[in-house]
Amino acid sequence: MAMPIEVGYSWNRKSISRSLIVLLIILVVVVIGILFSFYYYRSISSKSTSSTSTQTQSTLNSLKPASPASLTVIADNPISVFLPGYTSSKGSYALIYVGNGSVLNSTSNYVNVLYKYPGMYMLYYEVYQNGLIYGSSSSNLITLVVTPNIPLNLSQYLTVPTITFNITRNPTAPIFSTGQTVYLSGGFLQPPSGQNMTIYEYVWNFGNGQTMTVMANQTTLLPEENPVNVTYSSPGLYAVSLTVITKNVSSGKTYNYTTYQTIAVSNNSLMFKIFSSNLNIPNPGTIIVAENVPGGPYSFDADIDLEVVGEEIIRNIYSTLVIYNGSSTSKFLPMAAEYIPTVGNWSQRYVYGGIAPNYSMYTFKIRPNLRAANGDNLTAYDVWYSIIRSLLCSGGVPPTPGYALAQYLIPNYSEFMPIVTSPNDTNGFNEIMNSVFYNNDTNTVTFNLTERVNPQLFFSILTESEASVYDAKWLEQVGDGINFTPAGFYAYEQTCNGGNYNTQVQWNPMSTAPYMIKSYTPGESIVLSPNPYWPTNIPDIPKPNDTVIIYWVKDPNTAYEMLASGQADILTNIPSSYTPSILNLESEGLATIYVYPTFSENFFAYTLNVNTSMLKSINPQYNIPSYYFANPLVRKAFAYAFNYTEYLNSIVGNEKYHIDFGNAYCGILIQGLDYYIPPTELTGCPTFNLTYAKQLMEESGFYNITVYFPIFVSSGDTVDFTAASMWAQALHNIDPNINAVPLYMPFVTMYAYDSIYGQNPMPIFYMGWSPGTPTALEFAQGMIEEGGPYAAPDGFNSTYLSQLSNYFASQNNTYLANLFANESNEYSLLNNLTLQAMKAEVAGNTSEAMQLYKEVDQLTINLYMYVYTIQPTNMWVIKPYIHGYNNQISWEENPLTNAATDSVYWWWEK
């Protein structure tokens, strides 16, 4: 998640008023300059990085800063740099110190610069006339952010190194003085993802002829010696590089990739200062984000991705018909649509859009002059084509977002299942074709719903990824076009399953929104640039001016250091344990903190049919029966062994840090929902009670089973890793046979594990649910419903539980046979109640829905499907010069769209 640099100390010119002294100085300088100029000019080489002129900085003209065509550039792509203080004339030339160890000689005021590797580079230039130095921009250093550029086929073998400063020891970094000790910390964004790949060693080149090789620790993969230090005896720019050597431990083959960081070293003869505008904003025009999300996203295909990391990019690169109006969950802005449809406009629906009086048809007038990032016109046809695609992908595996639309457009739709069931399924084909229509003459799209759906609910669904607008022409050009026949629909559905994706759409889709993908380094970083064709006349959805660089870093410390050292503008997903450090930054005017509520909930989830073969491939020592957590009394015992108060007050830190990071909850429905049921109206909400937990384990029939298994936690989530450690100790105390250990795993890997039905190797894992609509039904679908994105891969299936009952009956274990039979019946009842409650909610039968959801929540608690930890509040940690759109942070504080600290970047201003 390159990086802006903190401004170093300024220097002051000192004038001498006595004319005699001035004259003497001028004479000395001229003589020395004449003698030295020929030697100086001839000695410049590509490895020289510092001015060697003996003329003091105070006698030179301070030139305007160089002006690159962009302050961000992708590695191995040339960039043009304008030199405003140089005018070409006879006998003149300019030397450009580009920060990578090279010095360019130019007789033009434009020069092309090529940076092969990513990093943070500084650049300045000097102007010469007849061999004499005339002026320098060293007091106006320009910083360029160069982002990685790794081919997809090599990404699994490489890792992008990181270089950060110790700002306590080096508060003026990257500006230093001669003789000063420079402390440099090496690291990496993400480890290599390829099989048998590891980080082998780190190679430093300090730009002054000194190098240093440091072996990688094979546990942490970080350098064995960290930080390292170096001093510079001469002034100038030094190109510090760090190369990470990765190695295939099986074949022995090695790979390498390098990152640069320019260091400016000053003395009395050559002073450096980073250019800043009057607003003192580093890297204007570039927003840099450090996200503590190791592993990055699953996909950028809006019809495939159902996780929050990829969703952030999806929100910024795809238009939807409508979007939420800032922080409101009930008001909407038209985006691809020109107007918000209303019932009153039904008679003029082809002009303004409209809603049928029975709320079963919605017509949207598509905004004119919309264009994709390649210039293609976007019409009603593209919107229609995109909705068809979403419906075809609604039954994809892993689960996909299209089910949210399909449930209202397809008669008797089975959620999370494909609509067209065979190449000859004309019924499924016709159901899709009859669900949505387009009219290019009126530029309208009409949805034909199977039931009455209130506008707030339907608009909420249309803000989400399942309603993203694609460029149909582009899809067909990249081999992802739809054949509009039953056989064609059936074939297309298969492309929505893992392993069959169109990789162009998955990782480099065509934008239809204000931002577009400029470059992507798999799992490590992404650069978003403004869509050049986005209109300038859409109210409150402005055409952005900023480029966005997002780094998905390996751990919270790297993310924090990037913000603290000035290498990032926004910090997200930082554990609460960093609060004191962040508060200290805020007290020094180096950060601003905002806290806001969300509609998210976090929990530990169980897997009822663990894929033990896959689990052993992670660690052969792990040992647990696949059905261990199918036992409801085991789940209940585990729930009562978790210390909820300790978790909230000390580990999360509500009391410790005096900040509200979230609140406890019980059941799947949380505060803020219309059908929220307070815990005081429910029974069985677990509390920390080890005596009762031990009793439950003894009653479960599994007390005497020795198990050794991991509790999976997303890499970088130090808070819940600590919680898992606390929980594991308590579990061992209630039953010495239980040996649980917390295990870090990249979020994207956990998401993949928890997306394959019957193949989940994670016995217990920490995740959450972030809905797309402020409705109880989204929580019910996501967390309870049989076949849903949690229940299905986690093994909550009444048939499976019945099979377990039959198995234990065959073993003459009547107790366990009855236990699993009762559980199967209870889960079947829960699933039926859930479907009834959702139906009542959609129909607007408020009292019926409330009663049904109360029964649903109670039965969910009785089954102990989850260990409920926190309904979190989120925290924005930003630099003081970062502001919300129109100076209102509320644009970035929607409890739904920003629930996972996902930014809508056209609503950030730098």
Task: Characterise this structure.
Helix 22 packs antiparallel against helix 23 (814-843). The chain is α+β, with helices and mostly antiparallel strands. The protein is built from 24 helices and 38 strands. The strands form seven sheets. Strands 1, 3, 5, 6, 8, 9, 10, 12, 14, 15, 17 and 18 form a twelve-stranded mixed beta sheet that branches. Strands 19, 26, 27, 28, 29, 30, 31, 32, 33, 34, 35 and 36 form a twelve-stranded mixed beta sheet that branches. Strands 22-23-25-24 form a four-stranded antiparallel beta sheet. The chain folds into three domains: 19-284, Immunoglobulin-like (Sandwich), CATH 2.60.40; 320-505, Dipeptide-binding Protein, Domain 1 (Dipeptide-binding Protein, domain 1, Alpha-Beta Complex); 601-871, Dipeptide-binding Protein, Domain 3 (Dipeptide-binding Protein, domain 3, Roll), CATH 3.10.105. Residues 188-244 form the PKD domain. Keywords: Membrane, Transmembrane, Transmembrane helix.
